[in-house]
Amino acid sequence: MMSAAGILSDRMIRALSEAGRIVSPRPFDADQVQPASLDLRLGGKAYRVRASFLAGPGHTVEAKLERLALHVIDLAEGAVLETGCVYMVPLLEALDLPVDVSASANPKSSTGRLDIFTRVLTDHGQEFDKIPAGYKGPLWLEVSPRTFPIVVRTGSRLSQIRFRKGSTLLDETALSALHRQETLVASEAPNVSGGGIALSIDLMGSGPGSLVGYRGKHHTAVVDVDRKAAYDIADFWEPLYNRGTADLILDPDEFYILVSREWVHVPPLYAAEMTPFDPLVGEFRVHYAGFFDPGFGHAGAGGAGSRAVLEVRSHEVPFILDHAQIVGRLVYERMIEHPEALYGRDLASNYQAQGLKLSKHFRADA
């Protein structure tokens, strides 16, 4: 079926399903398959647990839930998941992977922009969000809303999975060559190291008085994750403006939405992901959600000028971010083949050609 190494395309993901390698009690949603990933859907129940856990060798997630679950919530008609709580939810999709195909999971972009912490678990697993080649069994999602309480239901999509075969990552030499050819980030002197290409923060905007970010409010109403353009920004977010200085103090455990200084480009034969945390740049975490699919920022898919929206949280101590400070790195992987659809025009994607942008749940004119 597949001979080359790389990320599996949308066509190949559908082929895996048709071959019984992705199993679900109901067909895929019309827009569930992305150019280089598959959205994962919540099952019928959420188990409130005392704490996060991994199954570990010789154990299943379900067996551990018998000891750790506090109560069970029916998701069929929708239910509220509260901030500060941890839930385990079986996913509708289960896997029977070929012996040469592995996978990894990541929260969807909208999930990250709502500060919903999610991680995929497998039976016998020793790592979150990693599915070994040849895995056969169910998938579970750990869900922990951090800032806003949320409403979810069976079929809600908070996470996504990317399938790969063989060695897919571009090393620094290949990444530098691709940047020279395709311009991966708009930078006069790109910083390529550690297997990735650096992105920096924009705290200037269009000048003094301009919007440069948002900080999440506390004690808000709930956000229904399946409703688009349903909420006023002012009810959930405090805007942050350029006050004539080029820095921002991150308060510990507050949640911020900021934007990269550079625009980002993912050519059609590549996929990308931002490394979630680099201890060399400070005690904060940047962009812990969302794959960058083929076509993101690609002019041919309507994405010229797309920037990376960054979910930022400081840890332990206040931290001062300076304009143009490096805050993360994009790693690029090869696709096995050109996707049938590109991120952007082909899929009416929510975040193509974006600047500073909140999740799809908030009204742009609010």
Describe this structure in words.
The chain has 4 helices and 26 strands. The protein has 366 residues and is mainly β. The strands form 6 sheets. Strands 2, 4, 5, 7, 9 and 11 form a 6-stranded antiparallel β-sheet that branches. A hairpin with a 2-residue loop joins strand 14 and strand 15 (196-200). The chain is globular. The model has no long low-confidence stretch (mean pLDDT 90). It has helices at residues 10-18, 61-68, 109-113, 172-182, and strands at residues 6-7, 22-23, 38-41, 45-49, 69-74, 79-81, 86-96, 102-107, 116-122, 130-131, 136-145, 150-152, 157-165, 192-193, 196-200, 211-216, 223-224, 237-241, 247-250, 255-263, 270-274, 284-286, 291-292, 307-314, 319-322, 326-334. It has 2 domains: 6-165, Distorted Sandwich (Deoxyuridine 5'-Triphosphate Nucleotidohydrolase, Chain A), CATH 2.70.40.10; 172-347, Deoxyuridine 5'-Triphosphate Nucleotidohydrolase, Chain A, CATH 2.70.40. Helix content is 9%, strand content 37%.
Alpha carbon gap, first and last residue? 49 Å
Give the class-level CATH name of the largest domain.
Mainly Beta
- Note the overall shape: globular
Unreliable segments of 5+ consecutive residues: none
Q: What sequence of helices (H) and strands (E) makes up the elements?
A: EHEEEHEEEEHEEEEEHEEEEEEEEEEEEE
Q: Describe the biggest sheet? A: 6 strands, antiparallel
CATH architecture annotation of the largest domain: Distorted Sandwich
State the domain count.
Answer: 2
- The level of helicity is under 10%
**Strand residue content:** 35-45%
Overall mean pLDDT: 90
CATH topology grouping of the largest domain: Deoxyuridine 5'-Triphosphate Nucleotidohydrolase, Chain A
The CATH homologous superfamily of the largest domain is named: Deoxyuridine triphosphatase (dUTPase)
Which secondary-structure class do the elements indicate?
Answer: mainly beta
Rg, rounded, reads: 20 Å
How many beta-strand segments?
Answer: 26
